[in-house]
Amino acid sequence: QGGTAGGGTCAPGGDRTEEHFGTEQELKELVDKAHARGIKVLFDYAMVHVFEESPLYTQHRADGWFTPKYAVDDDGFYIDRDSGQLLLDGAQKPIAAADYPAPDPAAPAGQDTGLPAGADASRLLECLCSSDTLCNWDGIQDPDDGRKLEGIGQRCWFQGYLPHLDYRNPQALDYSLDAAVRLATEMGADGYRLDAVKHIDEAWYKGARARMQAEFPDRRFYLVGETYDFGSRDNLKRFIGDDKLDGQFDFPLRAQLARAVLKRGSAMVDLARFVQTNDGYYGCNAVMSPFIGNHDIGRAIHVAEDTPLWDEYSDSKARAWLDRPSQPTTASPYERRPART
Question: How many C-beta atoms surround the C-beta of residue 245 within 10 A?
């Protein structure tokens, strides 16, 4: 499952469309036909990373366009995976990733690893968001030893083959925003579903808003973010505003819906109270996107079973690969039972 790239959000780079889906002309015709029927079209824009074989990565990996594959602190120095302290060279000096952007800890002994003399490349820590080490999805704040890792969630790689674009770099930022504007204008998209917005610098989504307003002055180009957080509305809200996103996929509301309607584990009056506070929580101009299920979480029908296969928060993706559940065979999950009040 780690080698299949999950949802496929690892574009090889470049401007061409995926030939197995169709041509640019066919995509434009699809959008035009949808518009003729009064349907607006959103594109899923994955701006966090590219595939490791992308020309974008091979051409710009040493230009500061991508975050280091190996863990660094917020000052840009490599971290020793064994001690958790800074990795040192032979002169006992910390090593800056900007000076050595592409070390290869798997290189055979005696071959150039890309690190200065005296540095042990095998002690580098691969900075994957899914790891339980210093690198993780949400980052680490105020480590006991004083290292600054607050921004690690915006630097970690989703997988070892998915280089993470660094939008603190103006050239990388301009490239991605130019591509987003070009795709929207040439294909006629009405908005973007923005993947994993909490894993990029705010310069990207603020830049996207400014660029889209300039490109489409007579209409609002809808920007809806994906921030995978069922529990914190404030975490979603911080990305929403007149100069940021229009809204987000409403993960906290989904958790409440699943608990009250699918699991019947809370009263409908509690759901009603939540919805009443939720309507204006993100600001008067926010356009949120409620949902029951998506590609990252288990099917709603399995939450509705008398013995749910997972809770309202679980992404359950491992089951999709290793032990895919069958369709429920009892009537209970499909029935509309009297709601608790």
Answer: 25
